[in-house]
Amino acid sequence: MIVTATAAGGEGRVSLPVPVVWSEDCLRHEPAWEVWLGVRDPGTEVPARALALRDALSAAGAPVVPAREHDDTVLRAVHDPALVDHLAQVWAEWSAAGLPGEYGRDRVVPYVFPTPGLLGALPLRTPPAVHGRAGLFCYDTMTLVGPGSWAAIRGAVDTALTAADLVSGGERLAYALCRPPGHHVTRSAYGGSCYLNNAAVAAQALRDAGAGRVAVLDIDAHHGNGTQAIFYERADVWYGSLHVDPGAGWFPHYAGYADERGSGPGAGANRNLPLAPGTGDDGWLAALDVLCDEIRERDADALVVSLGVDAAVGDPESPLRVTEDGYREAGRRIGSLGPAVFIQEGGYDLASLGPLVVATIDGAAGWGTTTTRG
Ligand code: SP5
Ligand code: ZN
To answer: How far is the CA of 317 from the centre of ligand 1 (A)?
Structure first.
């Protein structure tokens, strides 16, 4: 029996019984800026996000578990090893080229992108100059690399893998406090404030640990184009997302449309539910139900949840209008699906981030209701 918190708290209160996986390294990435439409704006995906989340989850009583180091086996299966090597080395090369010191370029930002229209029939080369090579792996100007970035990027992967281990080992739920986030990263290209795809790595780890069918449910406000791309031709990992309609002018602009259903062996194993700007709890939860039904029909053995809380009404980065109660209800519905690894994605309102994630995880754990359950 679980005795749950009362409105007054105190007597009978039990802690949020979901392990929170944490790596101090995740604080080391300081993007500093986002170059958006040619102007350098202050970064939104800041270390304070992780501290706000950790503090709120600890205050709710969740056990904080250190991330364990993992080798690169799963990471290099999910991603092009050239992308992993690039991220590990690019800051050192950028510094060695004198770009920060002599030219005031304090972060890695690409300026030339090898689009299909540029290349035509030419082979895709690897430019020797690091400032030219940056655009080979990065598809936007908002996702900057600095001195501590690699430690945080790799720490986030270890965080996701540790949470996946916990669920493979029998925990019903685990939460990975990943930062930087990951769902915009394809097999070989990063962007959207993301560098390596933590959720995709967790999904592959669950597969490797014996789950035959894995579902990735993405409730971040933005479409997870990277996760979709990684699994687009696979039948063993289903991907479903609800997000603000890219066709209404929102990032990632080129993916996230309803007619993207998977291809080859993965045909039918991808589902996008784009939502109109302004969509609130009712429309968002109705779309969530469509995805939950599909996950049940597929009889997934394990679930990865890309948990972005930027669909919240107070978030500066999306026009969706989901409330904290909406997130709690989403948590309940997701929690009923089976074992789940929650991976932190976006969410940028520092004041409400923590309560939103606590509400979601709390809903999933079935904890925090006002009655005593048996
Ligand atoms: C993980 C995640 O949520 N990535 C989202 C990246 C999308 N960023 C788009 C940024 C657009 C420019 N922001 C303008 C700030 C207005 N408040
Ligand atoms: Zn987002």
So the answer is: 5
What number does the ligand 1 atom closest to the CA of 181 have?
1
138 Cα distance to chain centroid: 17
Tell me which residue has its CA closest to atom 8 in ligand 1: 192
DSSP H or E stretch at residue 216: strand 214-218
User: Which of 112-121's residues contact partners 24+ apart within 8 Å by CB, and which partners?
Assistant: 113/139
Asked whether the beta carbons of 87 and 145 are under 8 A apart, the reply is yes
* C-beta separation of 167 from 65 below 8 A: no
3-class secondary structure, 175: strand
Nearest CA to ligand 1 atom 5: 192
pLDDT in tens, 222-275: 999 999 999 999 999 999 999 999 999 999 999 999 999 999 999 999 999 999
Q: Are 69 and 158 in contact (CB under 8 A)?
A: yes
For ligand 1, residues with CB inside 6 Å are 36, 142, 181, 184, 192-194, 220, 222, 251, 308, 310, 316-317, 345-346
pLDDT digits over 73-113, tens only? Answer: 999 999 999 999 999 999 999 999 999 988 899 999 999 99
Q: How far apart are CA 43 and CA 51, in angstroms?
A: 16
Taking Cα atoms as reference points, which of 183, 267, 266 lies closest to residue 226? 183
pLDDT digits (tens, 9 = 90+) for 319-340: 999 999 999 999 999 999 999 9
pTM of the model: 0.95
| H-run or E-run covering 238 | strand 237-244
Q: Catalytic residue positions?
A: 184
Ligand in closest contact with the CA of 218 = 2
